[in-house]
């Protein structure tokens, strides 16, 4: 094969490579716009350094994966098959496919909190098909028009770059753009190295936002936060579960709250609510079927009564501590009290618990929350909540047992500060990111949108789709786990020096 500088083959290949660079630059601009969906899916940085890192990573990482896609697809085709018209057409099709996959991944991440993966692709496709079947004709038409718009963009950009290649070669833009991309790439990596070494969460929390980001493991993370003893792990793979009383720190100077609203009866069933019983609930009741709770009954009850993860259960129950938010004796433990050291009844109580097997006769004038018994063999499962309170109506996605009391204090009793200082949970309908943390039977339980993450004390973990139940095969979101562990240990004081 003749590849001398004056051969027609070499000339066409050189022109196509030059055209390919401009074609890639145009697609980098499009990918940068699409990548904004990833940034919008998570909480914004809280510091200027975090914003700088987000900007340079958004520029460099998206540009890098776009350039890699070009090098792996269009570049070898230009060398093997240097026919401009055919290459431009194939490049437009390849780019359209790649951009469409990126759009799909961005949609999945925005809606469910995880990226596409080869292992989970069949289940994710099944999930998406179910969502597509529920789309309106207008939404389907918009999606098809979007696909056509991407293909049209690729064809127009490719043809324009080829026809004006000589003029484009005279521009100095590529030199400056390349220098900017290289600078951003180096800056983002240096900033991440520094942030990882110094545990700067505002940067490291962004690790898993963009596709194909930083991998890491969970064992060092658990050890760093004293959920795993590495020495014991090496010897017997055991975890330090004991939480001495001195390690549980009760907040001081708690805000006062009047609790002027009507009392609320919380009925905790030890079985599922039969269908015929559900039909007896009047039209004022709504049902939320995605309440994520531990299958361990003691942990489940503790979540509901204390508004805290079961990480604190041993310490609190062994020392007979009342709920720390219960500053004015507003709590009553009535039928089937699982915490015998708590009062069976408090006069004029504002929150009444009933642990029972059947729903008692309901008064239309009272406020009720009915929580069904969790059924399952795993660490956590999903159960249903029935209530005639409006505060839970607009909640989308998962909810935890701890969220019930948090929501009541915040929205029903107007005690937002008291809830924030004494409990760990979300206010129903207020958490746009829809994430939470719990702990049961030595397992760290976190969720973010549709993704549930379970981490054992020895570092083994699994990720599950809440809606479909399939395992998600992708790298662990360690920055999110760091945030979850910090939230979990909100009321844990450092152990005193011996």
From TrEMBL:
<feature type="transmembrane region" description="Helical">
    <location>
        <begin position="176"/>
        <end position="195"/>
    </location>
</feature>
<feature type="transmembrane region" description="Helical">
    <location>
        <begin position="124"/>
        <end position="156"/>
    </location>
</feature>
<feature type="transmembrane region" description="Helical">
    <location>
        <begin position="21"/>
        <end position="41"/>
    </location>
</feature>
<keyword id="KW-1133">Transmembrane helix</keyword>
<protein>
    <submittedName>
        <fullName>DUF3413 domain-containing protein</fullName>
    </submittedName>
</protein>
<feature type="transmembrane region" description="Helical">
    <location>
        <begin position="91"/>
        <end position="112"/>
    </location>
</feature>
<dbReference type="InterPro" id="IPR024588">
    <property type="entry name" value="YejM_N"/>
</dbReference>
<feature type="domain" description="Inner membrane protein YejM N-terminal">
    <location>
        <begin position="9"/>
        <end position="252"/>
    </location>
</feature>
<keyword id="KW-0812">Transmembrane</keyword>
<keyword id="KW-0472">Membrane</keyword>
<dbReference type="Pfam" id="PF11893">
    <property type="entry name" value="DUF3413"/>
</dbReference>
<feature type="transmembrane region" description="Helical">
    <location>
        <begin position="53"/>
        <end position="79"/>
    </location>
</feature>
């Amino acid at each position: 094969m003749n590849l001398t500088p004056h051969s027609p083959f070499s000339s066409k290949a050189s022109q196509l490579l030059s055209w390919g660079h401009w074609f890639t630059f145009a697609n980098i601009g499009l990918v940068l716009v699409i990548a904004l969906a990833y940034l919008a899916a998570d909480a914004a940085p809280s510091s200027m350094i975090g914003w700088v890192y987000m900007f340079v990573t958004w520029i460099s990482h998206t540009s890098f994966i776009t350039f890699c896609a070009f090098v792996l697809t269009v570049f070898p085709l230009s060398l093997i098959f240097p026919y401009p018209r055919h290459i431009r057409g194939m490049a437009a099709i390849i780019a359209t496919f790649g951009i469409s996959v990126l759009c799909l991944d961005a949609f999945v991440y925005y809606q469910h909190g995880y990226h596409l993966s080869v292992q989970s692709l069949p289940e994710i496709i099944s999930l998406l098909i179910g969502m597509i079947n529920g789309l309106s004709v207008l939404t389907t038409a918009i999606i098809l028009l979007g696909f056509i718009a991407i293909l049209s963009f690729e064809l127009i950009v490719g043809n324009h770059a080829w026809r004006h290649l000589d003029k484009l070669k005279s521009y100095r833009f590529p030199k400056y753009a390349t220098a900017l991309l290289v600078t951003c790439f180096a800056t983002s990596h240096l900033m991440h190295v520094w942030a990882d070494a110094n545990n700067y969460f505002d940067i490291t929390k962004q690790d898993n936002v963009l596709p194909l980001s930083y991998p890491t493991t969970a064992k060092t993370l658990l050890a760093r936060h004293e959920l795993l003893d590495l020495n014991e792990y090496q010897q017997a793979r055991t975890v330090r579960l004991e939480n001495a009383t001195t390690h549980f720190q009760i907040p001081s100077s708690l805000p006062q709250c009047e609790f002027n609203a009507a009392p609320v009866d919380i009925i905790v069933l030890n079985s599922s609510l039969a269908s015929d019983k559900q039909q007896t609930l009047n039209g004022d009741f709504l049902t939320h079927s995605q309440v994520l709770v531990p299958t361990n009954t003691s942990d489940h009850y503790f979540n509901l009564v204390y508004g805290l993860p079961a990480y604190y259960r041993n310490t609190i129950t062994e020392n007979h501590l009342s709920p720390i938010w219960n500053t004015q004796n507003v709590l009553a433990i009535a039928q089937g009290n699982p915490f015998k050291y708590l009062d069976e009844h408090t006069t004029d109580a504002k929150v009444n618990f009933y642990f029972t097997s059947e729903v008692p006769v309901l008064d239309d004038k009272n406020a009720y929350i009915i929580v069904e018994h969790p059924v399952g063999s795993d660490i956590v499962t999903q159960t249903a909540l029935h209530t005639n309170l409006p505060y839970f109506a607009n909640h989308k996605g998962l909810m935890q047992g701890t969220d019930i009391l948090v929501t009541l204090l915040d929205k029903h009793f107007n005690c937002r500060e008291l809830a924030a200082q004494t409990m760990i949970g979300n206010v129903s309908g207020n958490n746009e990111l829809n994430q939470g943390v719990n702990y049961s039977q030595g397992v760290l339980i976190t969720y973010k949108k549709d993704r549930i993450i379970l981490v054992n004390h020895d570092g083994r973990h699994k990720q599950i789709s809440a809606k479909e139940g399939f395992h998600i095969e992708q790298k662990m979101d360690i920055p999110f786990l760091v945030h979850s562990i910090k939230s979990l240990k909100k009321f844990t004081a450092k152990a005193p020096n011996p």
